[in-house]
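Researcher: Next sequence.
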Amino acid sequence: MSSSRGRPHASSREMLADAACELFLERGYEATSVSEITRRAGVSRSSFFNYFASKSEMLWYVFDARIAALEAALRTSAGDASSALRVFAAGEAPETLALAIAEARTMGVEDELAAGRASRQLRIAAAIERRLRREGRDALQAEVIAAGYAAALVGTVWRWAVLGAGRHRLDELLESALGAADALLAPPR
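Model: Next structure:
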């Protein structure tokens, strides 16, 4: 049963992210408050915190969902780790993140993107490393291979954004990057 009160969840989340991006472009990331974002989106401040823990989370929420799907696939899929990595290419494209990457200087989000990229790349590498270790890889080998795959995934998202997110398919670029990473990182045992 749906309620006629309030906005649909996806719509409110997207509206908040759109409003935030507009304001970041106009005023900069640091100069934009959560209250200004909610006012622009036409939702309450409490609605903001129903969807996001912070301003920065708005930039990353789709990307973080892809990481969560990847972590689940690495924990549960029956194939090898390389096959499980393909799940990262599926799903919604991180358009808000792409805009932030392309307009990082204008939005004033360079530091946020650098810190967020590093922490997420480490999170991806740790998940891949755990999987490779379960598959019997040596600890050092697993760490190096995982770091390479994580860099391939995150680097491809950045490349996609810089090339113009609307002009290229992220899933196709990711598949190409994973193919190259497989050739370099997954030699026969």
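Model: The radius of gyration is 18 Å. Confidence is low (pLDDT under 50) at residues 1-8.
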